[in-house]
TrEMBL record:
Top-level taxon of the source organism: Bacteria
Any single GO BP term: translation
GO cellular component: cytosolic large ribosomal subunit
Keyword Lipid metabolism belongs to the record: no
Molecular function GO terms recorded: 5S rRNA binding; structural constituent of ribosome
Protein name as it appears in the record: Large ribosomal subunit protein uL18
Subunit structure comment from the entry: Part of the 50S ribosomal subunit; part of the 5S rRNA/L5/L18/L25 subcomplex. Contacts the 5S and 23S rRNAs.
PANTHER family given in the database record: 39S RIBOSOMAL PROTEIN L18, MITOCHONDRIAL, LARGE RIBOSOMAL SUBUNIT PROTEIN UL18M
Pfam families associated with the record: Ribosomal_L18p
HAMAP family per the UniProt record, alphabetical: Ribosomal_uL18_B (MF_01337_B)
Keywords: Ribonucleoprotein, Ribosomal protein, RNA-binding, rRNA-binding
Stored CDD domains: Ribosomal_L18_L5e (cd00432)
Length: 117
């Protein structure tokens, strides 16, 4: 029996999360996208805490344009918040999504704003 789209993503997610982990010094940038919105958060897996978060629903994010343009704005917003928290280097977690389109746009926006990964 074929796997559903969500089951495939969860398999990929488990495989990737077995290899990467975030810490206070090198947090994990986790991305989640729904059909309408996109969310990003920096996670310290050792403490089990979210250090910084940003989403397309935040008031500070310019929510005009295409979904890809909004994703770039979310990437820039998370990078600015991370810099304010003293974080420059991160590990990227695409959360089982294909590194293409909105996920790639978020990563590129974060890189433009100064995050290194």
């Amino acid at each position: 029996m074929a796997l559903t789209k969500v089951e495939k993503r969860n398999r990929i997610k488990r495989r990737v999360r077995g290899k990467i982990s975030g810490s206070a010094v090198l947090p994990r940038l986790s991305v989640f996208k729904s059909n309408k919105e996109i969310y990003a958060q920096l996670v310290d897996d050792k403490e089990g805490k979210t250090l910084v978060s940003a989403s397309s629903r935040d008031k500070g994010v310019d929510a005009k344009g295409t979904k890809t343009e909004i994703s770039t704005a979310v990437g820039k917003a998370i990078a600015e918040k991370a810099k304010a928290a003293g974080i420059e280097n991160i590990v990227f977690d695409r959360n089982g999504f294909v590194y293409h389109g909105r996920v790639k746009a978020l990563a590129d926006g974060a890189r433009e704003a100064g995050l290194k990964f």
